[in-house]
Amino acid sequence: MTSDQPAVTEEPAAEIASGARLVPRITIQAFCEHSQTAQLVESAVHDRRMSKVALTTHNGGIDGAVETYKSNPTPNLIIVETNLPPEDVPQAMERLAEVCDATTRVIVLGHVNDVQLYRELIRSGISEYIVLPTTGPQIVSAITELFAGEGAAPIGRTIGFVSAKGGAGGSTVAHNVAWAIATVLRQDCLILDMDLAFGTAGLNFNQDPPHGVADALVASQKVDQTMLDRLMSKAANHINLLTAPATLDRTWDFEEREFEQILEICQKSVPAVILDIPHSWNAWVRHTLSTIDEVVIVAEPDLANLRNAKNLADTIKALRPTEAAPHLVINKQGLPRRPEIAGTEFASSVECGLIGQIGFDAALFGTAANNGQMIAEVAANNKVNEVYRAIGMHVTGRQPTHGAGKPAGLMKLPSFLKKRA
């Protein structure tokens, strides 16, 4: 029996920016002939893509490298600087090849832009030839391409939401932005609830799965894509969850890199990984914030949130010197009888880009929370959904945000607070 109604087909997914691929855990030794080059190479280690890399620099260029590896094993990657004329470089590299392991890769930093030299070096097995002067990010990109593997598929974008103060609503913003990305861009999203003791991702999506992120952490090195797929729960079309157990029968203390492997596997399976990061400060939170693609600070417009958001922003900038500043979302604006700091003034003090301002609506958000629904499910036409969509567009690299308008009832910072801020 056939139906006369046409089949409903979903529009194709919109492209979003892929995540940055981290360089795997390798050792790199650089042999430089100038102190400026050594400083340039050392600056590369501050790039978040190099968070797993062990890098050391030495003097001596190619000759220094040859002498070193006559009696020492070679690392995964050697970077050598040379001042030799182009006709002498291939012969010098042959001497280096004689003392290197077959699996060792080599990047040459030269001072001559010579296409013929480049081709000859590549033919002889040199991984890359980079002409100086260059930049730290260019060196990191060359290293990333070497170790990503040929034809490596793009990986998912990691977007972390963290509250400046407990109760600021970072989780609610994270979950609703994920909903917007899934419904507007039709891209698969995975929400990773990292607050294992008090996480709300399961509650907010009316889910109570038997397994979640805690099982992946307990499995430690045994976790793989197949296991992670089993631990995920489907919350809606294009939305999967790795929920927190939200139990206090044990403490949830982690090493600095505990979540690292799980994140890498998640990035291989979905285009957007939304991290619901708890309002706490420890080694693994700090490390996570330093390595993900986008950081969004969610704050209420008061003085305590301003102080914490400023501290967070300054620390994150120091952890990620080659990256853009964190983004800022002002939440719960317009609370009755509360003096508030204007959004633009708040953002200016924190020195972060303001990508969204969300007004306070106790009935709307309370209903959504109690029903285990997103705001778009409770009130599809409410203007707050436009803000969530604008934030989603921004953090996925689709377009600049124009949804950071000022909700009605917003007050300027009172003079006595302005002096303290």
TrEMBL record:
Biological classification of the source: Bacteria, Pseudomonadati, Pseudomonadota, Alphaproteobacteria, Hyphomicrobiales
Short name of any one Pfam family annotated for the protein: AAA_31
GO cellular component: cytoplasmic side of plasma membrane; cytosol
One of the protein's GO biological processes: negative regulation of cell division
Protein name, entry field: CtpF protein
Domain AAA positions: 157-322
Keyword Phosphoprotein attached: no
Gene3D superfamilies to which the protein is assigned, alphabetical: 3.40.50.2300, P-loop containing nucleotide triphosphate hydrolases
